UniProtKB/TrEMBL annotation:
Keywords: Aminotransferase, Pyridoxal phosphate, Transferase
UniProt feature coiled coil, ranges: none
NCBIfam families xrefs: PRK07480.1
Official protein name in the record: Putrescine aminotransferase
One GO cellular component, as annotated: cytosol
Species this chain originates from: Poseidonocella pacifica
GO molecular function: pyridoxal phosphate binding; transaminase activity
The family this protein is said to belong to: Belongs to the class-III pyridoxal-phosphate-dependent aminotransferase family.
Matching CDD domains: OAT_like
Cofactor(s) in the UniProt record: pyridoxal 5'-phosphate
Xref: InterPro entries: Aminotrans_3, Aminotrans_3_PPA_site, PyrdxlP-dep_Trfase, PyrdxlP-dep_Trfase_major, PyrdxlP-dep_Trfase_small
Amino acid sequence: MTAITNHLPTAELQRLDAAHHMHPFTHGQELRDKGARVITRAKGVWLTDSEGEEILDGMAGLWCVNLGYGREELAEVAARQMRELPFYNTFFQTTHVPAIALAARLAELAPGDLNHVFFAGSGSEANDTNIRIVRQYWAEKGKPSKKVIISRQNAYHGSTMGGASLGGMSGMHAQGGLPIADITHIDQPHWWAEGGDSDPQEFGLARARQLEEKILELGEDNVAAFIAEPVQGAGGVVIAPDSYWPEIQRICDKYEILLIADEVICGFGRTGNWFGCQTLNIRPDIMTIAKGLSSGYQPIGGSILSDEVARVIEGHEFNHGYTYSGHPVACAVALENLRILDEEGIVTRVREETGPYLKEKWEGLCDHPLVGEANIIGMMGSIVLTPDKDSRAAFAAPEGTVGLICRERCFANNLVMRHVGDRMIISPSLVISRDEIDTLIERARLSLDETYDRLK
Ligand code: PLP
């Protein structure tokens, strides 16, 4: 067989890819018809494809390459760790220095008394762990009936049976008979799409109070936890009205419901603080982490537990774990990633410098005839495409047709921007410079113009 390398023609790589490689969230026929773009190299915020095109990655891969591509330090740490101890497990009373050091560093960074880390290989696995943790917690506390986890429509918490059930994506629930038992959903705090004529703050309160209504409907003795992303990412970068989170916090406190903040996207600087719950003043009992933890250089995730939750769970053997829980190479790379984010002041820069600069430019897109509103927090933002800003109208069904045109125009203009329905979203690497932000905005505007032209 011919060696498959970057040197093969793009069409041949695409043919082999479509023939043998099954892609996540991809339609097989479309893949065969159009072929996937083959990415060969990356540096900073720039991708290079097999045709030699330079593409500005407005999504940091999948919201994860917080530190940008091509950091030699991470490659060196990985190689060193592979030579020294490529694998050992953390089951049955064994441990190793990378897992110890990363857990201790995360305990330092995480707010409040979130001091105990259970490692997983991904965000989905970590959320599966969380389901088991909260149920075990209440069982150990003598309240085994507290099992139901409340989540939100249009949330994303992963793709495993547990993660997809916690998520509120109807398209995912439709395949495979989800959600699994004892997971239920309330509405999301998405004022633009669902707020009608209401005032955004009143809408935020009403949506938060659905949590209370759901707890009362189920009976507080049956509810274990509420899970939410501080800012919904894959749902379209939905930032809740300011009234929402304080009310959610009040309700969780009042009914003793564990609060799980899914920080898989918001964590590690994306919102301008180490964690989204610091930006939004949320006090979780458990945080889910992944993605930016290693800037995507290694697959790693985890759950960070409060002193109290960990104390209860550790009262007995917890019959749970993954072969790669605390994988030494992944832990060493994550630790180095956190060191660089910290020592180069990257999180502070997002909060004080590049975040505000991007916000100003991003919100400037609102003068475009297609753009209804712009939402942005730190380095994650969305714009809504609408045929009529005043009435907040949606384009004629099927939803997402215009978003898809815009995404394809972005791609043609060498900018990666994703669409969620008719919302366009960005989540660039935290190291993006002002000049690169200018380029991102120029290409976004050009793509919006071309989309607008196509609708005429
Ligand atoms: N939670 C959130 C908020 C996410 O955005 C994602 C992935 O996008 C996940 C969980 C799942 O993480 P993973 O894809 O690493 O399993």
